[in-house]
Design goal:
globular; 3-stranded antiparallel beta sheet; 7-stranded mixed beta sheet
């Protein structure tokens, strides 16, 4: 069993990584006999894991209830949050309840947002079931719901009390979802760890084959990086912002195309290539690095250019509303070399549009 601690003083919490954790009550710390809890999941995962988790929790005398939501990014909305709020109130859940988010990034983000706001805050446990949520979305306390005009525009920073990563969930994960998660893995390597990037180049086929040892190493390395960044910059006012590499453009694609039509990792993959091309145009990034990144994304099975129905200028309205805009100035995360990235401001729209166009010409 691997255990990583996110160090935030009295709000520190463990990330537990192993196979078979859904049968181990110790992994679900701090839940104990007599506690009240509400498990939030979606229809797809309910058929796979709900009975196993309910059996475990009920056998330990946790007073557990459940709510099952539709599956998909298009349901990460205020109306779905209201459905959970209503259930919590109808079942008389108070401030001492615990929410359990069993799902990918959609369920984790939605449940975290509800936990942050229900009766001004209740504790919650992240139980991520997709690779993307295991390496990124479940760690760090970024919670949100979507708006028609922008992704994750309504939310809060609110930390879980623990993260439970059972790698057995990846055995039932569709290949497209697994591939989508690898975009976030590659992002970590580009920003922070050249050796990890080289490891990915050598082990991509092993990861796609879902080898347990490779998967555990991959998840652990990403969680180590994320935990360190969250401890240093919880509210994303400094170094943690680097984790947004590719996301400004990726969120534009997701919103423009309609939530759920492009998976998050697919859109981020294109966003990474755009960021590389913009950095090249600024003279900050070598084309040979971009080519290595494109080659790895292509080998994984990720897209390297955006939807053809979306013109370069279509990105601009979404970029202008991006959460990383401060005082009217867009902050873009751009790679400088593999293993190192920086935040840039005051990049001209002409340069951004040229970088997007370059991406379409990959």
């Amino acid at each position: 069993m691997d255990r990583i601690i996110v160090s935030l003083g009295n709000r520190s919490y463990p990330i537990t990584i192993d196979a078979g954790l859904f049968k181990d009550m110790a992994s679900f710390w701090p839940l104990k006999a007599g506690d009240n809890a509400m498990l939030v999941t979606n229809q797809t995962l309910a058929s796979l894991y709900l009975d196993t988790l309910l059996t475990l929790l009920m056998s330990e005398n946790v007073n557990i209830q459940k709510i099952i939501l539709p599956d998909g990014e298009q349901y990460k909305t205020l109306s779905m949050a209201d459905k959970v709020f209503t259930m919590l109130l109808q079942k008389n859940h108070s401030r001492d309840t615990t929410l359990i988010a069993l799902g990918g990034g959609v369920i984790g983000d939605l449940t975290g947002f509800i936990a942050a706001t229900y009766q001004r805050g209740v504790r919650f446990i992240q139980v991520p079931t997709t690779l993307l949520s295991q390496v990124d979305a479940s760690v760090g306390g970024k919670t949100a719901i979507n708006h028609l005009l922008g992704k994750n525009m309504i939310g809060a920073f609110y930390q879980p009390v623990s993260v439970v990563i059972d790698i057995n969930c990846l055995n039932t994960l569709p290949l497209r979802e697994l591939v989508s998660g690898l975009a976030e893995v590659i992002k970590y390597a580009i920003i922070f760890d050249n050796e990890f990037f080289e490891w990915l180049e050598q082990n991509v086929d092993t990861l796609l084959a879902r080898d347990n040892n490779a998967i555990v190493y991959c998840i652990r390395r990403c969680c180590e990086i994320k935990a360190k960044l969250v401890a240093a910059d919880e509210l994303e006012s400094g170094i943690r912002a680097l984790l947004n590499l590719g996301h400004t453009f990726g969120h534009a694609i997701e919103t423009y195309m309609g939530y759920g039509n492009w998976l998050h990792g697919e859109a981020v993959s294109v966003g990474i290539v755009i960021a590389c091309r913009i950095s090249e145009r600024l003279g900050q990034f070598n084309t040979c690095y971009t080519n290595r990144i494109i080659d790895l994304l292509h080998r994984v099975g990720l897209p390297i250019y955006g939807p053809y129905s979306m013109k370069p200028e279509d990105y601009l309205p979404y970029i202008a509303r991006d959460k990383k805009v401060l005082a009217g100035k867009l902050r873009l995360v751009l790679p400088v070399k593999i293993g190192y990235a920086k935040v840039y401001t005051n990049i001209m729209n002409d340069t951004i549009l040229a970088g997007i166009t370059d991406c379409y010409n990959c």
